[in-house]
Write a structure and sequence with these properties.
Helix content of chain A: over 70%
Largest sheet of chain A: 3 strands, mixed
Strand content of chain B: under 5%
Largest sheet of chain B: none
Number of helices of chain A: 21
Number of strands of chain B: 0
Structural class of chain A: mainly alpha
Structural class of chain B: mainly alpha
Strand content of chain A: under 5%
Oligomer: heterodimer
Strand order of the largest sheet of chain A: 2-1-3
Number of helices of chain B: 2
Largest interface: A-B, 34 and 28 residues
Shape of chain A: globular
C-alpha cells in the first residue's frame, strides 16, 4: 500500500488535534480527581460515545472484520448477544450501586462491599491486564504499519506511545475520553464509505446473497449443534458463555468501560450512559463486520482480493480491513481510513493507561503506600503512573514481538479474570449473605478453574498443557466454555463459603446490595430520560434484528 | 478560545479540515481512480463538520438530551 502526501497530511492533522486536545485540557487539571476522574463532570453524549469507543480498539476493528470473513453474520452475536444485554443490565441494575456508593473504581467498590484483600486482588489483576492490553495495542499498531505501509517497527512504537503519552499526561482521563469520541466519529465516517463502495461493487444485496455461503448469512441457523454453523459453537455455549458470563463479566465489571459511566454529571446520566451507548453498538456490525462479508463476495467475483498467509501458513483474516482499504480506497480517503485504524490503536492504548493509573493511584498507592496525602500529591502520582504505564506498554509490545501466542494469552487472561468476577458481583449485589471470604476465595477458585479447563482441553492446537481430555471445535467455543465453567465454580465456591462464614452487618451494606437499598423512581421524567424506557427500546430493536437475520 | 473546550467545536474543526483537504484533492487530481469518492466524502465530512460547529453555538441546554 502506497500513501501519498494528502494521506500523510490527514494523519498529521489527526496527530495535531489529539496533542492539541491534551494541551487545551492541561489548564483545567488541578487535582488528582481532575486528572483521574474528570471531576465527574462529563456530559452524557460524551460519556456514552466514550463508553463504546473505549472498547472500539484496534483488536475490535480489525478482529471483527476478520471474524466477519471467518464466521459471517454469526459474528454479530458479539454485539447483540455479547454486549447490548449486558450494557442494559449495567445501566438499569448495577450503575446505581457503582455511582451511588461514590466508589472511584471497580476495585474500590469491592472494598466497600467486601474487604481490602478482594479489592487488592482485583486491582492487581486489572493493572496487569490493562498493561498487557495496552502493550498489545501498541504491538499490533506497529506490526500493521510495518506490514501495510512499510514503516519501521521501532519508529511506529515510539511515535504512537509518545503521542499517547503527551495527551494523557497533559489532560488525563478527560483528554483520553475526548479523543475516544473523536476516534468514534473517525472510525464511523472513515470506514462507512468502504462499506458503501464494497456493497456497490459486489452488486448490492443480490450480489452478497449470490456469492456468500448461505451458512454465513444467519444468526441462529444451525446453532443446535457446534458442527453445523461456521462459529463452531452451540446455542448453550453462546447464550451462557458469551451472552451471560463473558458479556456481563466484561461490560459490567471491567473498569475500563465502567469508568466512562462513573464520570457522568449525576446518577441518571450514569445509568443512561451504557444504555444510550448500546444504540450505536447495535448498528456497529454494519461498520466492522459487514466488510468481512463483503470481502467474501468480492473474492468470488474479482481477482486480487485473496488474503495473505500468516507466519503459520494459515489465512491471515486480520488483513481483511487493510486489504479492502488498499483495494477500494483512492489516496485521500485512504488517509482517513488509515488514520481511523491508527486512532483505534492509540485510543485503545490510552483507555487502558488511564484506567491503569486510576486503579494504581487509588487502589494500590493510596491504600497501601500513602493514605492521607494532598490532592496535588495524588495528581503527581497519577502523572508518574501514566509515564510508567506507557513505558511498561512499550516493554510489553517488544515482549509480544518475540511470542506469537501472546495475543491468545491476553484473550485467555480476560476470560480467567472477568468471568469469575461477574459471579462475585452478581452474588455480592443480589445476595446480602455473600461474605468477604466467600468473595475472595470464590474469585481465586474461578481463576484456577479457568486455568485448569484451558490446560485440560485443546482447540485449534491451543491449550492442553496438562492433558487433552476434550477437543473443542474452535478457539471461540473453548473460550465460551472456559468462561461459563469459571463462572459456575466461582459462584458455587463463593456461595458455599458464604454459608459458613459471617457476612458484613446489614447496615454497612445499604447502597451496595439490591435488597437493602431503597428504590429510586424516575418520576415525572419523559421517556428519553428514563433508563428503563430506554432499555426497553434498545432490547426491542435488538430482538427485531435477531428475528430479521435469524 | 473558550469554544475550543467544546468537543463538538473541536470535532467540527477537525472534520472541516479533513473534508476541505479531500475536496481540494479531488478537484486537483481528477484523473485518479475513484476520484469521485474523495469529492463525495469531502462534502459529507464538511456537512457533518458544519452540523457539529452549529451545535456548539447553541445555548447550553438546561438538561442534556
Amino acid at each position: 500500500m502506497h500513501l501519498h502526501l494528502v494521506d500523510y497530511a490527514i494523519i498529521g492533522i489527526y496527530f495535531l488535534f489529539v496533542v492539541g486536545i491534551g494541551f487545551l485540557l492541561k489548564k483545567r487539571i488541578k487535582t488528582g480527581n481532575d486528572f483521574l476522574m474528570s471531576s465527574r463532570n462529563i456530559p452524557l453524549w460524551i460519556t456514552s460515545l466514550a463508553f463504546i469507543s473505549a472498547n472500539l480498539g484496534a483488536q475490535e476493528v480489525l478482529g471483527m472484520a476478520a471474524n466477519g470473513a471467518k464466521y459471517g453474520l454469526y459474528t454479530a452475536h458479539f454485539y447483540w448477544m455479547g454486549a447490548v444485554l449486558a450494557m442494559v443490565f449495567l445501566g438499569v441494575f448495577m450503575m446505581p450501586f457503582y455511582y451511588g456508593s461514590k466508589a472511584r473504581s471497580v476495585p474500590e467498590f469491592l472494598k466497600l462491599r467486601f474487604d481490602e484483600k478482594t479489592r487488592t486482588y482485583n486491582a492487581l489483576t486489572f493493572a496487569v491486564m490493562t498493561i498487557f492490553s495496552s502493550g498489545i495495542s501498541l504491538y499490533a499498531l506497529a506490526m500493521l504499519m510495518q506490514t501495510i505501509l512499510g514503516w519501521d517497527f521501532n519508529v511506529s512504537i515510539w511515535l504512537a506511545a509518545g503521542i499517547v503519552l503527551i495527551y494523557t499526561f497533559l489532560g488525563g482521563l478527560t483528554s483520553a475520553v475526548y479523543n475516544e469520541v473523536l476516534q468514534f466519529f473517525l472510525i464511523v465516517l472513515g470506514i462507512a464509505p468502504l462499506v458503501y463502495i464494497g456493497f456497490h461493487q459486489v452488486g448490492g444485496l443480490d450480489g452478497i446473497l449470490a456469492n456468500v455461503d448461505n451458512a454465513k448469512l444467519h444468526l441462529w441457523k444451525g446453532m443446535s449443534n457446534s458442527a453445523t454453523n461456521p462459529m463452531g459453537t452451540n446455542a448453550f455455549s453462546l447464550i451462557f458463555g458469551l451472552g451471560f458470563v463473558l458479556a456481563f463479566g466484561y461490560w459490567c465489571t471491567d473498569f475500563l468501560v465502567v469508568q466512562r459511566a462513573m464520570i457522568s454529571h449525576n446518577l441518571n446520566d450514569a445509568r443512561r450512559t451504557p444504555i444510550i451507548a448500546a444504540l450505536p453498538k447495535i448498528f456497529m456490525p454494519l461498520i466492522v463486520i459487514v466488510p468481512g462479508i463483503l470481502l467474501l463476495a468480492l473474492q468470488k467475483q474479482f481477482s486480487g482480493f485473496e488474503l495473505p498467509l500468516n507466519t503459520n501458513g494459515q489465512t491471515d483474516y486480520n488483513m481483511v480491513l487493510p486489504l479492502l482499504l488498499s483495494k477500494l480506497y483512492p489516496s485521500g480517503i485512504l488517509g482517513v481510513g488509515i488514520t481511523a485504524l491508527i486512532a483505534s490503536f492509540m485510543s485503545g492504548m490510552a483507555g487502558n493507561v488511564t484506567a491503569f493509573n486510576t486503579v494504581f493511584t487509588f487502589d494500590l498507592y493510596q491504600t497501601h503506600i500513602r493514605k492521607n496525602a494532598s490532592e496535588k500529591h495524588y495528581l503527581n502520582v497519577g502523572k508518574a503512573t501514566t509515564v510508567i504505564g506507557i513505558l511498561l506498554s512499550i516493554l510489553t509490545a517488544y515482549v509480544a514481538r518475540g511470542f506469537n501466542s501472546i495475543m491468545d494469552l491476553l484473550q485467555l487472561v480476560f476470560s480467567f479474570v472477568n468471568a469469575p468476577l461477574f459471579a462475585t458481583f452478581f452474588l455480592g449485589m443480589f445476595w446480602k449473605k455473600t461474605s468477604s471470604n466467600g468473595a475472595f476465595w470464590g474469585l481465586l477458585s474461578g481463576t484456577v478453574a479457568a486455568g485448569l479447563t484451558y490446560s485440560l482441553t485443546v482447540a485449534e492446537g491451543k491449550g492442553g498443557s496438562i492433558a487433552q481430555l476434550h477437543t473443542f471445535y474452535s478457539g471461540t467455543s473453548q473460550a465460551f466454555n472456559i468462561a461459563w465453567i469459571s463462572f459456575v465454580v466461582c459462584f458455587i465456591v463463593t456461595a458455599l463459603i458464604s454459608f459458613v462464614t459471617k457476612p458484613k452487618p446489614e447496615k454497612e451494606l445499604v447502597g451496595l446490595v439490591y435488597s437493602l437499598t431503597p428504590r429510586q423512581r424516575d418520576k415525572n421524567r419523559v421517556w428519553y430520560k428514563n433508563p428503563l424506557w430506554l432499555a426497553i427500546i434498545v432490547l426491542l430493536i435488538t430482538l427485531f434484528f435477531n428475528i430479521l437475520f435469524y | 478560545m473558550n469554544k475550543f473546550f467544546d468537543l463538538r467545536f473541536v470535532i467540527g474543526i477537525f472534520f472541516l479540515a479533513v473534508g476541505m483537504l479531500l475536496l481540494i484533492y479531488s478537484f486537483t487530481n481528477p484523473t485518479i481512480e475513484h476520484a469521485a469518492v474523495n469529492r463525495w466524502c469531502g462534502l459529507a465530512f464538511i456537512l457533518f463538520a458544519l452540523i457539529m460547529i452549529a451545535l456548539s453555538f447553541q445555548k447550553k441546554p438546561k438538561d442534556e438530551l
